[in-house]
Amino acid sequence: MRSTRTRKTAPKAAAAVAPRKKAKAFMDEEGSKIWMDPDSLSVECAICYMPFEAEVFMCKNGHAACAKCCVRINRKCWCCGKPIGDMRCRPLENVLAEMNTLCRFSKYGCTEVVKYIDKSRHEEACPRAPSGCPFDVCTYRGLLLYKHLLDEHSGAVTSVANNLRDTTRLPFDKSAPFRVLVLERAPDTGEGEGSVLLLLNGGGVLSGRSLSLVCLAGPRPEGNSDGELRYKMEVRGSEPGVLSLEGTAPRVRELEGFEAKMFLFVPDASWAPTDRVSVSIRIG
User: Has keyword Nucleotidyltransferase (predicted)?
Assistant: First the structure.
């Protein structure tokens, strides 16, 4: 007596299941494809979740960490407790050294192809990185911060001359967290248009305030090696005399967590009795 067999068919995939992401492909020198799963964390430090750079360390059990995290965890592996920070993971370092990737600001127009280990360094200085509006109530983020401030916040923006002959003077309140400044176009070189500066009022000092100048957006000026805007700031308050500071305005992507390395200390006595001082700024 013959038995009848029923052919089983594989169940159809549910329509709600999202399609799998395509792996990113790279080409080596011989033209062969090398790819990585976009969800893989194998090239990121398991502690800080930042991309590995040139040096990768491991414990004797093969658990890897970046140099900064080895110091942060007191050279004791977070996974097995073995010492970490003495042995380099050379095979992984060699793979990372040959990997190329795109800048994460490619959607804003950056076309650079960079080494994976240089990705973070490139993105910190990428000229196509968007800038966020410094005002808390505004959600703007893009490449036209200069235009956005003039169009949407013109009443809260001060125009600053961009040449050595002119000085801009403005009142500054002790309670104000910052003052937004935009550079006028320099008459000789045409430089400056599109640059946004912040005069920051730091509260991290005793018996006074720390005033500093930072650059949020704009083209890097020509004529100096570091590409940063040079300035001289003078403060006049209720006390006789002038407080002054000369330096370069560092470029800052995000204000959150930023701490100025160079600032002008303005003691409480200079703010009294009106809680206001006069600030003079000269760019160039």
Answer: no
State how far the Cα of 179 lies from the Cα of 140, in Å rounded to an integer. Answer: 18
User: Is-contact 170 279, C-beta < 8 A?
Assistant: yes
Q: Are strands 178-183 and 157-160 parallel, antiparallel or unpaired?
A: parallel
Amino acid identity, position 201: N
Count of residues for the chain? 284
Residue-wise burial string across 215-251, b where 16 or more C-beta atoms lie within 10 A, e elsewhere: bbbbeebeeeeeeebbbbbbbbbeeeeebebebbbbb
Please write the tens of the pLDDT for every residue from 89-100: 999 888 888 888
What is the C-alpha separation between 115 and 98, in angstroms, rounded?
Answer: 7
Q: What is the pLDDT along the chain (284 residues), one digit of tens a residue?
A: 444 444 444 444 333 433 444 445 555 555 666 665 544 546 889 899 888 888 999 999 999 999 999 999 999 999 999 999 999 999 988 888 888 888 888 888 888 888 888 888 888 778 788 888 999 889 998 888 889 999 999 889 998 887 767 889 999 999 999 999 998 775 555 556 678 999 999 876 888 999 999 988 776 655 444 567 889 999 999 888 999 999 999 888 777 778 888 999 999 999 989 999 999 999 87
Which DSSP category does 70 fall into?
Answer: H
Which phi and psi angles does 130 have, rounded to 5°? -75, 160
HEC readout, 119-148: HHHHHHHCCCCCEECCCCCCCCEECCHHHH
Q: Which residues fall within 8 angstroms of residue 116, CB to CB, at 6 or more apart?
A: 43, 51, 96, 99, 100, 101
Q: How deeply is 212 buried, as exposed, middle or buried, from its count of CB atoms within 10 A (0-12, 13-18, 19+)?
A: buried
- Three-state DSSP class for residue 236: strand
